[in-house]
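Customer ticket, subject: "Can you confirm the structure for GNAT superfamily N-acetyltransferase?"

Message body: Hello, I'm evaluating your service for our small team and ran a test protein. I'd like someone to confirm that this is what the system normally returns, since I don't have a reference to compare against.
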Amino acid sequence: MTTHSEHPTLTAPTTKPTAAPALSWTVTPEAFTTRDATALRRAYYAEVAGRYWKRQVTEAEIDQGLLDFPDDGLVPPTGQFVVGRLGGEPLACGGVRLLDPGTAELTRVYVDRRARGTGGGAALLEVLEAEARALGAVRVRLDTRSDLVEARALYARHGYAEIPAYNDGQYAQHWFEKPLP
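Agent reply: Thanks for trying us out. I re-ran your input and got the following:
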């Protein structure tokens, strides 16, 4: 991991089952309002809402969802938003925010379907956990839904353990926590 502007950056080599050269992930802090970050947040919402409702969502529903669940807490000094790029293409994002001085929460963790299985989720988690430590957190938590099986598997693979509910989120069905060394 390297440091850029006091924020961690991760470049992780990945391979795809093709003869093409290996691409690498770069994950860096970015304002959630940039063009790339906004497109990724919209894609995230479209996928999680579509899976929940079991149908494709409309642009108006995405707009409303982003208004109902704003990302304004994902800015320093209480949070951070990151964008992951594979071979320079923005294909992943995530956020971290403080719940209290020692506890951070992951949110909006998303890897585009075209890039799943290439190490993007692991790259996001590594940088988000480093951002949480930089915010002063000693543990990180998150909530997710039962139908987001890929996300639950990712968290379990990276040391997150299921815990009792720490919030009463409308869409929360599983809660995870990981101590930060």
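A couple of notes from the result: Confidence is low (pLDDT under 50) at residues 1-7, 9-18. The longest helix spans residues 35-53. Feel free to reply with more questions.
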